[in-house]
User: Which sequence fits this backbone?
């Protein structure tokens, strides 16, 4: 479903991704890890079509990433947002819904947004300002936004960074409940959780290589993946 | 004679009041986008570049006796042109954005001053453009203001949800296949239109006081963008009418008084918010 063939990407003359050839099947839960600056987020941006490869090819459902966006959703890190932005949790979730030409969102989408906020445990916070939610709650609202268009591929960029371990655990449980319903590709620095929940693990350190869970545990103990 | 009595008796003051209210509507709504998208300095650049268009229009008007050529038409062209240039730089050459904003800011002002300097008696004209003169608002100015206001309201009504998306999260908007470039340019064009509307009231130099300050104050009172817009419009009306009354009483320039009044309220609000935040455990 997702294949990359000798994928390379460079910022000016600095190579960030080199000869990455991977293949991901439908419904898999993939965890991407590696050191800071190793190219994890760059790989995610390439797969979503926000960056164009220097060389090589990406195919998603046999289409280039930009043409496959109708099947994708994305969960960024919650602190990427302006803390003073005047928007409520439900308005954030509806940001994933289609808009009619005159700017309105269908009633069915609003119902779906309420249901999703309920699913992610934010029923009480539907009309709460997004900026006043905790980091974990903001992250769950962003997951609800990503789910509203029923994606086939869910990309997540370190969804548990800068939130407390308990909130992080809730997010992992939420993602685990989605396993099999869609392909999940998550950049993470929490290897323990990645090992517990993911089907396959990719280490990105310029090159992209698949690692077995045992290998990751061994390398982790040796301190190889510390940021 | 107090301000209210003068308002009843002098059509000039009534025109000024209507002009100020019309400008308040546009600047309250568009200013809210400017504040949440954090493009205040970019808007300042468009505002100052407008002088080139106004200067050119004044020069052509006097040199070729084009009586129909209102400087506001020149402002409109220059504002839209600079908005497009800045927008394209933001979208495609973001690493040079600051320098380009500064370049358009200074070249726009310089060109305008040079054009106006070619016209006899230019200093009065220049001061009106720079500092505004709401008391000079004519019925034809009001018609233009009304048309621009209507244009802004209709576009905002149709595109508000999309503007919110590009202001909050451009990446998500791209993923939803929204035309982010087109929407960003449209937003900048709306800012350009608002700037043209505001020039008459507070002038080029003081424009940001009506575009950014009321919306920034409104943002401290609400966490909903539509409510923020309503509060910003209300504050703009309060500042412009209040500033007009103070300027009448003290015989100060109207535009500068309006800007000073809104600036003072902004500072008071900032201080008040800081002290309430400090008091909150």
Assistant:
């Amino acid at each position: 479903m997702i294949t990359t063939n000798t994928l390379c990407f460079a910022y000016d003359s600095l190579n960030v991704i080199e000869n990455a050839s991977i293949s991901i099947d439908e419904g898999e839960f993939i965890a991407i890890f590696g050191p800071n600056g190793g190219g994890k987020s760059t790989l995610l941006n390439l797969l979503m079509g926000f960056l164009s490869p220097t060389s090589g090819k990406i195919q998603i459902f046999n289409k280039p990433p930009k043409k496959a966006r109708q099947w994708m959703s994305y969960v960024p890190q919650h602190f990427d947002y302006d803390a003073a932005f005047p928007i409520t949790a439900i308005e954030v979730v509806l940001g994933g819904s289609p808009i009619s030409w005159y700017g309105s969102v269908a009633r069915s989408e609003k119902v779906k947004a309420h249901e999703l906020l309920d699913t992610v445990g934010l029923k009480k916070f539907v009309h709460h300002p997004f900026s006043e939610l905790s980091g974990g709650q903001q992250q769950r609202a962003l997951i609800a936004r990503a789910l509203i268009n029923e994606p086939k591929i869910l990309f997540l960029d370190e969804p548990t960074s800068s939130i407390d371990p308990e909130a992080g655990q809730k997010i992992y449980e939420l993602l685990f409940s989605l396993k099999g319903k869609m392909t999940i590709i998550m950049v993470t620095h929490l290897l323990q959780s990645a090992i517990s929940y993911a089907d396959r693990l990719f280490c990105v350190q310029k090159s992209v290589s698949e690692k077995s869970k045992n290998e990751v545990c061994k390398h982790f103990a040796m301190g190889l993946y510390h940021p | 004679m107090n301000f209210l009595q003068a308002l009843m008796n002098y059509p000039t003051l009534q025109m000024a009041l209507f002009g100020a209210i019309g400008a308040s509507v546009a600047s309250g709504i568009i200013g809210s986008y400017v504040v949440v998208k954090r493009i205040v300095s970019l808007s300042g650049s468009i505002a100052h570049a407008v002088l080139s268009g106004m200067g050119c229009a004044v020069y052509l008007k006097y040199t070729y006796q084009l009586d129909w050529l209102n400087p506001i038409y020149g402002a409109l062209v220059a504002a839209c042109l600079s908005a497009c240039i800045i927008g394209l730089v933001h979208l495609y050459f973001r690493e040079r954005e600051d320098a380009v904003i500064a370049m358009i800011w200074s070249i726009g002002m310089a060109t305008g001053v040079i054009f106006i300097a070619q016209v006899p008696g230019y200093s009065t004209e220049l001061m009106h453009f720079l500092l505004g003169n709401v008391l000079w608002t004519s019925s034809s100015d009001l018609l233009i203001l009304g048309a621009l206001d209507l244009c802004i309201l209709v576009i905002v009504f149709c595109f508000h949800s999309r503007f919110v998306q590009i202001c909050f999260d451009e990446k998500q908007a791209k993923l939803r296949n929204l035309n982010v470039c087109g929407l960003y340019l449209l937003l900048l064009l709306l800012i350009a239109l608002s700037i043209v509307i505001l020039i008459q009231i507070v002038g080029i130099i003081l424009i940001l006081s009506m575009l950014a300050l009321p919306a920034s104050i409104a943002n401290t009172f609400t966490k909903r963008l539509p409510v923020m817009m309503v509060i910003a419009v209300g504050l703009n009306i309060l500042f412009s009418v209040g500033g007009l009354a103070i300027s009448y009483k003290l015989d100060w320039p109207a535009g500068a008084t309006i800007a000073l009044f809104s600036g003072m309220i902004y500072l008071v609000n900032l201080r008040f918010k800081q002290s309430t935040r400090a008091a909150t455990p």
Notes: The interface with chain A takes residues 36, 38, 157-162, 164-165, 167-169, 171-172, 174-178, 219, 222-225, 227-228 of chain B (CB under 8 Å). Chain B has a mean pLDDT of 89.
